[in-house]
Each structure stands twice: as C-alpha cells, then as structure tokens.
C-alpha cells in the first residue's frame, strides 16, 4: 500500500492494465457471443435443410413400400423397413448426425408406458446406444405429435454411458409403409462447432493477453518519460531543503519537461540567492543586536548610577522634579530589561546559551513566582491558585530559566485575565518521564489568526493597548527558547472569551526524550468542543487546531524585568 501511494508510475500502469483487461474482456465476450450465435444459426439452417430432405425421402420410401406391398399381395415388416430407413437416411451423414425413429403416441398411451421393443421400438442409426428419454425431451415428442410440421430444439445428446454433448434435435411426425404414425428425429452434435468456438476463444484470449501486456509496456514507457524528471525534481527539491543549494536538474531537449527543468533550475538559483542574502542579513542583524547590547551596557551603567543618586535625593526637589526622577528610574528598569532580553536572544541565536541543570522541585519555582506576582494579581482583582503541589514534581532543569518562563506565563495570565483567578497546575507523568506546568486564565481568550504569531519576537496583538506592567515583546520568544533548550516544548490553547492556557512540558532529565504530557493542553472546563491551540514551533496532536494569543495578548514580559 505504501508503494501504491508513493509510486504514480505503478498506479498508472496498473490502472492501464486493469482497464485494458476490462475492455479486452468485454470485447472478447461480445465477439465470442457473436461467433457462437453465428455458428449456431449456420448449424441450424444446414441441419434443418438436411433434416427436411431426409423427411421427404422417408415419405417417398414409405409410399413406394406401400405400393409394392399391395401389388405383391403382402406387406413389408414395419420393423425391418424402419431399420433399413434409418440406416439409409444416416448413411449420407458420414457420422455428422444420427437418425432416430420412435413410435408416435397419437393413440393416447402415456409416453413412459410405451415399450421400445421391436418391431415398434426405436431405431437408432449409431452403433453407440443413446439414452433416448434424456435426449429427446417429452415436450419435443408432444410437439411433434401435435402436428406434422418440423420441430427443433437445442439440447444434449446423452449416451447410455452417461456422457453427453450439446446438439440440435430436429423431429417430425411421419407415416410408415403400413400407414402407422411414427416420429423421425435427426440428432446433430455440435462437435465441430465447439472445436471452432474453442479455437476462436483461445485465439481471442491469446491476442487479448498480448494486447494487455503490450499496452502495459507502452504505458510504462510513456509514464516513465514523464515521471523520471518529476522524480528527479523531487530528489533535488529534498536536497535543496536539506541545504544543498547548488543542486540542479539535468535539462535535455526543448519539450515541456525540459522547460519544467529550466524553470526549476531558475527557481533554485533564485532561492539560493535569496537564502544567501537572508543568511547574510540575519548574521548582520545578530551581530548588530549583540554589539549594540554590549555597547549600551557601559553608558547604561553610568546613567543608572546617576539616576540612583537623583532618585535618592528626590525629597529635596519640587514635586514635578521628584516625579521626573521616579519616571527616570522606572524607565531605566525597563531599558535594562530590554537590554537583558536582547543579550539573551543574541546568545540563543549564536548557540551560546547553556544550561546549568540541577535536580529541582518545580513546586519551589512556582512558589517563588506566585509570591512575586501576588501584588500584581491583587491590583487586578484576582487570585493566584496553585493545584497539584501536594506531591514533589522533580526534574533536572535550570531553575533560573524555568522560573523566568513561569513568571512570563503567570504575569501574562494576570494581565489578560480581566481580574479573574489564574490557576497554576503542576503534574508529573506516572512513568516518571515528563513533568508539566500549566497556567490557566479566564480572560479575553485567543483568536485563531493570532495563533502562529504569539511566540514571535516583538509581536503584540494590539500595540496600542495600554499596559500596566510594561514589556519588551520578547518574553514568550525567550520562554520558547528556554523550553527547547531543556528538550521540552511550550504550547498554547485558547478560545475567544473563554480564556487561555499555556502548558510547559519538560523531560525528567534535561535533553531527554519527550513523548506526551501529564497535563492536557485543553482544560476540562473549556466551553467549546473545538478549541484553538498551537505549540511553539509546531502543531500538537492534543490541540484542536491553530490558535494562541487572543485580543490584547502579546509575547511581552512582565514589569519585573524578567
């Protein structure tokens, strides 16, 4: 089945063979039927002509025998006369038919009770005995006795040993030399016709098989001319996708396939050029971000020192200047947060991020995050609830990075929870291979069109929305990278107006294999049957479709500099 699905050449050739076989079979049945009908009709006409001639001869012989017997003053024995008649009529057939004379039943005696003994018994022209009751049917005998016309039917000529062959049976009621009624039958076997029909059938079958094989070979050759370049293009496309951008198709000729190859090669060259430009641009961007981030640290440190001095002395200033000192310090905090995020992103891009993993009880990580975010939740009017903290949830993680991920998720949930409770759940898999943390809010929810962008850098659903905690737009991007660095994944689920849930799943050992998650991505209290969900970087089987951030949700971070 896999070969059938993947090989178009096999499907085309097999379909051609099957259709060809069907056509040949239908044509063969039609032709054989026509030949068979033609042979039967020709046989019937010839046999009927011969039988009618025999019937005329029998009438003439009966009349002559009657006149001779009267002139001689004696009557010829009917049994001997009938035996001579049957032999004389059959002698002209040279074995291609048999002649049978049987007594008539016009006297009203049942057919089964009439004896077949001489001189009134049947007379057969063949040395081989026949099973006359099974050969000459009762219906035909009754029809022959009903009138003196010629009657015929297709049937089987059954021998006394039980063997039979198809044949044509023609009969008529006549008068013998003594004026008694009798039935005369001609039995024409279809031996020659069956041989002819078998020859025609064998010829058609052989020709049909040869035609089907020939059509299959032609289809294979024709399809190969088209499929081979397509397969080559598929292999080269796979190599291009693997990064071997110098691969090209071999082009020969000027037909459609050649033009396809030229177009493919042109596309590959353009892709190579664009990818090289993007790589160079990405390299310059990463270098710019890294250089700017490092270069800004020194002046920012100086500004921070000056701002601290001004902030400490704000009591000596007038109210407007004191407020300016407070704003200066808060914006410096935000500036430092952005700078720290940029440095972290540059480390991820450069592949310089490393784990400092240790066995950690994630309950402690969650507790620290909850304690730090409770003031914000109180200001919003909601509560932070922790579920699943009764048992240890231990994994080999980098506590600093995981705490940063959880803090981003919790603060985002508070920001977009519309003053409702936020639930944090912890769980460990029964097999001990994975642990998970899920953060659930009941706020504005998520829209499907924002699903694939919620984890993008600097993306926000509504940039004009007022924020109370600030943010850089890099929080969820960094969280995704932290999850991947551990060998885990970060996923999002949501429904418009029904809130959202972000789930972080980590292997028990850092970088270990990860299959399922001990927590469902779709919460049990979801309102709809078809939620929107997305996994950072790839779709997940336990989500019902794409979806992530909702109105006002963004990829930013909280206002605590995380």
Automatic annotation (TrEMBL):
Membrane-spanning intervals of the chain: 12-35, 199-223
Residues in HAMP domain copies: 224-276
Every Histidine kinase domain range: 291-510
Any single Pfam family the record assigns to this protein: HAMP
Keywords: ATP-binding, Cell membrane, Kinase, Membrane, Nucleotide-binding, Phosphoprotein, Transferase, Transmembrane, Transmembrane helix, Two-component regulatory system
Biased composition (Gly residues): 544-553
Subcellular location: Cell membrane
Descriptive protein name: Sensor histidine kinase MtrB
The enzyme's E.C. designation: 2.7.13.3
Organism of provenance: Streptomyces marincola
Topology relative to the membrane: Multi-pass membrane protein
Region entry Disordered, spans: 504-562
Main location, first listed in the record: membrane
GO (cellular component) term, any one: plasma membrane
Reaction(s) the record says it catalyses: ATP + protein L-histidine = ADP + protein N-phospho-L-histidine
MF annotations from Gene Ontology: ATP binding; phosphorelay sensor kinase activity
InterPro entries: HAMP_dom, HATPase_C_sf, HATPase_dom, His_kinase_dom, HisK_dim/P_dom, HisK_dim/P_sf, MtrAB_MtrB, Sig_transdc_His_kin-like_C
